[in-house]
Amino acid sequence: MIERVASKIAPGRAPSFNEAQVVKALEIIGAYETVGRIRLSKELGLGEGATRTLLKHLKNEALIEGSRHGIVLSEHGKKLFSNLRSKISEGIEVPNSPLTVGPFNIAVLVRDVAHGVKRGVEQRDTAIKAGALGATTLIFSSNKLTMPSSEEDVFEGVSSIRDMLVSRLNPKENDVIIVGSGETKSNAEIGAKMAALELLKIESEG
């Protein structure tokens, strides 16, 4: 459904937003409960025209409704949002470290998708394609956070970051944490979420 919202629905130009921005829009509307188009446009970092198109697509999928005070999630939208939240966490800010590659870094947790991770470069490439500088993939297994195909302790000297990720994101066995890095907080978040969505696709296809 998120793919459909981010696709073009008629001949013409493809929308200037991606699946991660669709998820972000649902998060913003869900957090505010009622939100106006201008505020949504500002928080998404999209122009008003692109925001109008995004809202039209969300309405076509019956995910949102208009109210006197603004835009709200429909019952259908609330279900999808709840389903998404059970699989992908909200993003949290992560300090710069040898693990990250940009001035802004946002981490998201993706539930039970470790088997879909190969070398981690796939998540990095997806994040870069979405406008981020890169992404770091971490797998939680046997009560440890490790990088794919690496035996070394990637948190040597930065154990406080590992502790922060574990305490704030609360990973379970076979969960994955993706840290997106970007020139802006928004780019870092969109990169991390696009990589997370790609992993969920692999899981659903598997």
Give, in order, the helices and strands.
HHHHEEHEEHEEHEH
Distance between the termini: 18 Å
Supply the CATH architecture of the largest domain.
Answer: 2-Layer Sandwich
From the alpha carbons, calculate the radius of gyration and give it in angstroms: 17 Å
- Beta fraction: 15-25%
Under CATH at level 1, the class of the largest domain stands as: Alpha Beta
Q: Write down the overall geometry.
A: elongated
Regions with pLDDT < 50 over 5+ consecutive residues? none
DSSP, total strands: 7
**CATH topology category name of the largest domain:** Gyrase A, domain 2
Give the neighbour order of strands across the main sheet.
3-4-7-5-6
